Amino acid sequence: MGLPGTGALVVLALGTIALALTQGAAQGALFLVGGALGMSLYHAAFGFTSAWRVFILDSRGRGLRVQMLLLAMAVVLFFPALASGTLFGNEVRGLVSPAGLGVIAGAFIFGIGMQLGGGCASGTLFTAGGGNARMLITLVFFIVGSVLGTVHFDWWASLPALEPVALWQPLGPWGGIALSPAIFGAIALITMRVERNRHGTLEQPPESERHGMARWLRGPWPLVGGAVALVVLNFLTLAISGRPWGITSAFALWGAKIAQAIGIDPTAWGYWQRPANAEALQSSVFSDVTSVMDFGIIAGAMLAASLAGRFAPSLRIPLRSVIAAVVGGLMLGYGARILQEAKKSKGEKRTAAQADLAALGKEPSAPPTTDRTVTEPTYEGLTRKFAEGMPTLGIFSDEGGQFLGGFAMSSDNRQKTLAALNDLWQGNPIRRTRQGDGSFTLHERRLAMHLMVQPGVARGFMADPMTADTGFLPRFLICEPPSTIGTRLQSGVRYDDAALLAFKARLKAILETPLPMDLDTRELQPRLLALAPETRNLLATFSDEVEKAQLQGGEYSHVTGYASKAAEQAARIAGVLTVWKDLSAENVTKEVMERKRDAAPLLPLLI
After folding, report:
1. What number of CA atoms fall less than 13 Å from residue 360's CA on the CB side?
2. 3-state SS assignment for residue 400
3. DSSP assignment of 181-248, as one string?
4. Which residues, at least 6 apart from 562, have a Cβ–Cβ distance to it below 8 Å?
5. How far, in Å, CA of 83 to CA of 500, rounded?
6. In 3D, which of 153, 144, 149 has the Cα closest to residue 274?
7. Rounded distance between C-alpha atoms, residue 42 and residue 361, angstroms
């Protein structure tokens, strides 16, 4: 195995123990998983992007077909866990990323860097660990490029991007499992057809000089074996760390820490001001999951190269190759950083915003709308106003035909609306049970109505038996004043606004008085306006007289619906007149009930 392999084995053993003792058992386990990934990548010579390069340049698709197998196995293992959000009792999450302009630009830069640098992120890491000096140069400048990518993070993150979508969300885990292998299988079939058209036959795995345990220890592994190992190890990463395996974020962290060491402050860059990145920059590099696993991959690849007898670094690198490694590394790092962060930024900004909102505590209730009047509401709209706004509303309109001829009073909705308004007139709670709006009950809401309607419109509405049978019309005080046409003369008229201004001032004072209500539930808490004893007696006498007049053949026998509510209407109007004069009045006096000047006279006109 040699000295490098022994050193790598010692590092893996002691590193696992040291990390477990200082950073927790999980970090120690992840370092060991990283070592196993390094061995798997090296022995299987598994490159994710190199398989696509080989297919594009040479039409050989064996590597791509193995990748499709790897992805299909990963979907079967990962989707159920990610959809449930837990694995072995631990919370897990996927890296769900949206496509956007930043992703396209980052992928393009990364692709060029991969060709110049000689490998992708995992390929760079395991070949550098395996003793390839040129790839070590690529790795160094990969780190530099990653830091440069964080400098411009804000700009790349601001570019347009689509919403992130995970197949297990719209389709469910089993729907995603069914669809994904179908896509992977189609890609595999395409590679087979292209390869046969160009070469006549499919490429076969090369024969290995080693067999049995010697092959698994010293390599080379079959590609399928490497794919299975990578899936299993990635699943272990998910189970231990709560997220899938990643590589490149550690390079930016290493570079930022080196920048700090030489006097450059990266905390001024937007990338390092994000909470998770700022915390990683302040903490030990050994507390970072990705860094620990990357260290393990390097050690594991070194051990694998030593076991295979191929660990032999050579510093004899042509200048052109060095330049290509430098430029390729820079582009790999820069492209990978903007690619990953452009993908993550939209979802992570949303997650960060949700976390910030959660930290503020329970969402406060929206301030109530200040609307006091509406003109032509539906009952649903009215209840929404009561739920979101003030506990008192008025349906006031000088074009009442809009309400009477509107949607709420259409033939399909009239009975429902009339019954609901009757309930409000009686002061009953508003109860709503609807799938879209949810269920709620509103107590202590009050509604007033004042509609001015053209006589023809009013007569058409009043002629509908439903308006009387439901008791709706008897709840109104209906009047038709005589027409003033022919008497509206302007010459010689003297205007005196004193009465109107006094009315306006009183109305303003009442409206500016705070409502007696619970501020949390917005339920009215009205005080009791009692009837003075003599007032009660007067009202009882009036009620009895009207009741007797409803007997068959009596004066009010033809309008019993209206007559039955006359006493209640009298009490309501007397109460309004009382508080109009004095909001703090404690009872309704006999004088108010009898006062002809205000009521003109009140009781007889109620019928």
Report:
1. 8
2. coil
3. HHHHHHHHHHHHHHHHHHHSSPPPPPPPS--HHHHHHH-PPPHHHHHHHHHHHHHHHHHHHSS----T
4. 473, 474, 556, 607
5. 68
6. 153
7. 50
- How buried is 348 (Cβ within 10 angstroms: 0-12 exposed, 13-18 middle, 19+ buried)? middle
**Residue 83: count of CB within 10 angstroms of its CB:** 19
Distance CA 255, CA 143 (A): 6
Is residue 438 packed enough to be buried (19+ CB in 10 Å), middle (13-18) or exposed (0-12)? exposed
At 173, list the tokens. 């885990």
53-65 per-position pLDDT tens digit: 889 889 999 999 9
Going by the DSSP 8-state scheme, the letter that residue 464 receives in this structure is S
Q: Quick one: pLDDT at residue 157?
A: 76
3-state secondary structure of 119: coil
Inter-residue contact 105 to 156 (CB < 8 Å): yes
pTM: 0.58
Q: What is the mean pLDDT of the chain?
A: 86
Residue 602 pLDDT grade (very low, low, confident, very high; cuts 50, 70, 90): very low
At residue 152, the 3 state secondary structure works out as coil
